[in-house]
Design goal:
single chain, four-stranded parallel β-sheet, 4 strands
Length: 175
């Protein structure tokens, strides 16, 4: 892969894959299992692309007001479908509720803490990460990940010392 100067990661798609995508880690993933999957994924992307200047990691925060009703209806439908699926299959155990991948939930708070720990650990222990600035926008920052990324890019482009020859790479599974 060509090297870039700026790498932007929208992590929500990675979190969703860890919990119920094709690469799901189990029937009921724990927060630690999800975090381990996400850390491995981010590490692989970073190692393959090796941004020279900055990596910006964004997790979806509270959506704009106009989108809240749509999300609420989708989450309700997801919960209802999950209940009907459990009833029809006669499944007796617990089932992972993907609605917990929502800003402000206990699950996302714990994932947020683990991502912050991961970033600090990588910067202090991994020589590849030391020379790259890492910014993290958590679920407590309003806006969807891809919007946060685009706002940051717009901010960079208006900077007087911005170099238009620099390369930007945006990675997201849901955008």
């Amino acid at each position: 892969l060509p090297r870039c100067d700026y790498l932007y990661l929208d992590v929500n798609g990675i979190i969703h894959n860890a919990t119920h995508g094709e690469s799901a880690i189990g029937e009921i993933p724990t927060t630690d299992m999800v975090a381990s999957y996400v850390f491995g994924y981010i590490s692989d992307i970073f190692a393959n692309i090796q941004p020279r200047k900055l990596m910006f990691i964004a997790v979806d925060g509270v959506a704009p007001r106009a989108k809240l009703n749509q999300q609420r209806s989708r989450r309700y439908r997801t919960a209802l479908d999950r209940c009907l699926e459990v009833e029809s299959t006669g499944h007796k155990g617990e089932v992972f509720d993907s609605n917990c991948i929502t800003p402000g939930t206990e699950f996302m708070h714990k994932v947020d803490q683990l991502i912050e720990y991961f970033i600090r650990k990588k910067i202090s222990e991994d020589p590849l990460w030391r020379n790259t600035m890492v910014l993290y926008s958590s679920h407590s920052d309003p806006g969807e990940g891809e919007h946060k990324i685009m706002n940051f890019i717009r901010y960079l482009c208006t900077s007087p010392d911005y170099n238009a020859a620099e390369r930007h790479c945006i990675y997201g599974l849901d955008a």
